[in-house]
Amino acid sequence: MTLPDHIKIEAKRDLTDLVAIPSVSARVEGLDACADKVAALLADAGFQTAIEPGDVGPFVTGEIGEGPFTLVIYNHYDVQPEEPINLWTAPPFSLTERHGALFGRGAADDKGEFVSRIAGWRLFRERHPGPLPFRLIWIVEGEEEIGSPSLVRFLEKRYAGLQADLCWWEFGEVDIRGRPVVLMGFKGVLAIELSVRTARADLHSSLGAIFDNPLWRLASAVASMRDAAGRVLIKGFYEGIEPDRATRELAASPPFALEDLMAATGGQKLLGAVTPSNFYEHLNFEPCLNVNGIHGGYEGAGTKTVLPATATAKLDFRLVPGQNPKAVADLVRLHLDDNGFDDIELIVHDAEVLGVRSDPSHWAVKLGAKLLEKWFGQPAILQPSSAASGLAHPFVHQLGATLFGAGITHHGAMLHSPDENILIDQFHQMIGFSADFFSALASQCGSVADVGYQQRETGS
């Protein structure tokens, strides 16, 4: 199966243009310009578009079609900061091609995903230019990389009362063997900062004989929250999170080998409870605590014998359905107080993303899985939950949609890192899949739209 050359050329051009815009939400940079470009692409593809303000970056919407079946596509145009720049092989905001891949900040997360879908839409419309027999709502935001602070409010305001059938999520995965992995859920996230002060200013290190060291104190507090095997030691952390039997069975047999994941990522040191037979269950169902960084004192060249006055640590928790980030933050505060760390300040940076999972038996998910197998040449893997997080819960709980996370994030995509990339062959495969998926939904809408309504009404 091949794509027309003009579709490939247009897709690469669009991705080149988008990557060239440094839409870094953490710096509030390039967001308006990128939103304008996304809106122009959607308008050129036949959508009725709008740009609406968010807390940090604008929301872009595109709408077309009508009918009893509603598909929501969610993407984002903001990207992570490019630092450290010196580790990039080529400039991060210039799309470059090497070794069968396209490199650049946002090439994978999430501009490449967006472009693959809109390129597939163009191909579909070339073949089927008539009225669209289902409703399609495309939502592209500019705040995902900073926790989507205004997404819930935007959906409540703009799409109050909307009932959607399927939400095609911003990304999906392709494993090291080229098999498409459909993500049916996502973990939640809590991001916090801990800080402690033990003196007015840095002191001579000789005074360490009588005064406590804030870095030592903070390290002790962090170490008290997790054991060496990765088990979180905060009281109440694991209550009410056991997945149902059917969901657990989906992850009983790892669809790819642990050694493949280690080879693709360069990860080496495994947690004590992780084995080649259970790692996939851990990725899907286990919450975890990560230390993102600990800072304080002297970090320059050479030595400086100083007893620091302050120390900070940034942490995140990846959470699963049943865990509320704000409630977990309260448990952290109680843990610190109960263990003698009441002087450590707790700052909550992100507590909006709840974990969520969807039912993989939805007819549109099964349809998509068949078409993925057609384009990628191997059966699609239905994964209960991504190990990563995304603000998917309002689409499920507010709009009533089933999640469908199909995309081209491969295990060596270097998300959030230098040399972020997508594989060109998989980029083209996803374009072809997207065109066929739109076509299949359109052709089946008359005969299966009522089924979608029945599933929504019964909550299946």
UniProtKB/TrEMBL annotation:
Coiled coil: none annotated. The keyword Metal-binding applies. This is M20/M25/M40 family metallo-hydrolase. Keywords: Hydrolase, Metal-binding, Plasmid, Protease. InterPro entries: Cyt/Met_Dipeptidase (IPR051458), Peptidase_M20 (IPR002933), Peptidase_M20_dimer (IPR011650). It comes from Ensifer adhaerens. The lineage of its organism: Bacteria, Pseudomonadati, Pseudomonadota, Alphaproteobacteria, Hyphomicrobiales. Residues 196-339 form the Peptidase M20 dimerisation domain. The keyword Glycoprotein does not apply.
